[in-house]
Amino acid sequence: MALRPARIGQSNRGAVSIGKQQASAPITYPAPKLGLVTTADVASQQPGSALVMRNFLPTLTGCKIRGGSVKKGLAADLGDIKSAFKYKYGTTEKLFVATNSAIYDMSSPAVPPATTAAAVSGFAGGDWCTFQHTNAGTSNLICFNGVNDRQVYNGSTWSTSPAITFSDATTMAQLNYGWLFKNRQFLLKNATLDAYYLPVNAIGGAAVVFPLGGVMKKGGSLLMGFSWSLESGDGLSDMCAFISTEGEVAVYAGEDPASASTFGLRGVYQIGKPLGKNAWIRAGGDVLVATSDGLTPISQVFQRDRQALSLVSVSRPIEDEWKKAANATGGGWTLTQWPEQNLVFVSFPENTVVSDTTFVLNVLTGRWSTISNWKALCYATLQGGIFFGALDGYFWQGDITGTDDGLTFSATYLSQFSPAGQFGQRAAASMAHMYFRGKSKPKVRLFARGDLDRSTPSFSDVTEGNINSSEWDVGLWDVAVWDGVSELIRYDSRQNVRATGDMLAVGCVITSGGAVKLDLEIDLATLQVTAGEASA
Fold it and tell me: CA distances (Å), 425 to each of 51, 429, 451, 506, in order?
């Protein structure tokens, strides 16, 4: 029987259309160079940002997985470590931590479970403010906690000498904060708007009151202060800033506070309420203060009112998470710089709203991420490493090894959401493809999410670092390879995923374990999607 060509289907409306097979296409997600961004709306999410970046550290090219943590010391009183501070002069470098009852030298502590004895004890508070005052041939660490006499450490011993005397009923135990301005100590008193100052280069003696009650119109009390250099058009001008609990900033300039003609008020400005007396850092030529409105650059207070300051806040990308933590705690925040890695760690008291979280800022890029599973109450640096104090007297070193005290931890990333075609067009994701840079191929769980779903899966397969790579003090002598193995190699992973929505995102979970820190960075990712009908 001869074959004849099939006839084209007909209907009373003309030729029948023959449908085409639906085709899929990739969506590209760049490496997260913009860091964690939780404030963007649906239509303004930028490629290269992330909605989840947990246990990653922001870098110039994206983000890298953090290292683990190791218990380094245990305070003898087993109290929570409230603050950490450092003494450095010449070749002497010491790291101290404080509980509510004692100060401990954790420069070379006993290995837990053995405890470290207190360097000085008998206190009733552990929230210390410290600064270093160096004169010819000597350098003293000056410490205030607002409930005990001021402590002075000279590099070998602790004392309360020389004493500070006052013309009124004030005592040294009422001093809760101090700083240096032009080699003169300025001091703040508990729950008042009175400051005090000492003679030039003096670390003790008669203190003179410097009242600011008539300057701070909103009341409250003085919380912090610092010296600050401002470009005034004809060179740098040194300023002395006083900040109240209500966010008023009084700025003075001059030499001698005793003379109104040489030490004058330059202005009073308004910022959000500060989140702690140690909640500020120097960043380049500026000072950043953690407030209820965000991480505020002091240089901007001259140009903007309080409402406009949030627009230039350094914490603008994570403003919603920042304000949740600020509202839940109200104070007790600390900011700690890690200069060797260009990072700043923002810690705050434990709470149920934003729990087990540290905000991390890369000061070179202004990008953010978060750290969990450390439960850190305060941070400090020593000899290039990062350390933190935690609950029950434990003192830890961070970003070291591949585990948290021998237990695995997971790092999670979720990209920004992108439409598959036009906004409002439903799409389905079928395959994820992600690239990494590292010293060994990671075991990874890829996933996709739709329509601003920020949930993340768990993943139990552990990736161990390459013990033969050239990591100093970890790689084995005569075993570690000091060439190509130490270089970052590009790896990729391709997995089936399932997600539907008007907008789609791609993510990954990596579980770290082993004796060596993972050296792993997230690179480009793609998501294979099929666009469907318009959403109802």
Answer: 22, 13, 12, 18
Predicted confidence at residue 467, as pLDDT, reads 74
Distance CA 351, CA 357 (A): 10
Tens digits of residue pLDDT in 371-391: 999 999 999 999 999 999 999
> Which of 127-141, 226-240, 387-401 comes out lowest in average pLDDT?
226-240
Query: Can you tell me the distance from the alpha carbon of 448 to that of 436, in angstroms, rounded to the nearest whole number?
Result: 17
What was the pLDDT predicted at 13? 57
Q: How far apart are the first and last CA of the chain?
A: 52
Q: What is the DSSP string of 163-174?
A: PEEESSS--GGG
SS3 42: helix
- β-bridge partners, 503: 419
How high does pLDDT run on average in the chain? Answer: 91
**E strand or H helix at 529:** strand 520-534
Backbone angles phi, psi at 387, to 5 degrees: -130, 160
Distances (CA, A) of 128 to 103, 318, 524: 10, 28, 45
The H or E element containing residue 308 is helix 306-309
Calculate mean pLDDT across residues 288-306. Answer: 93
* Cα angle for residues 98, 131, 362 (degrees, 5° grid): 85
Q: Which helix (H) or strand (E) holds 325?
A: helix 319-329
Indicate if the pLDDT at residue 57 is higher than 50: yes
Structure tokens at 114: 């053995």
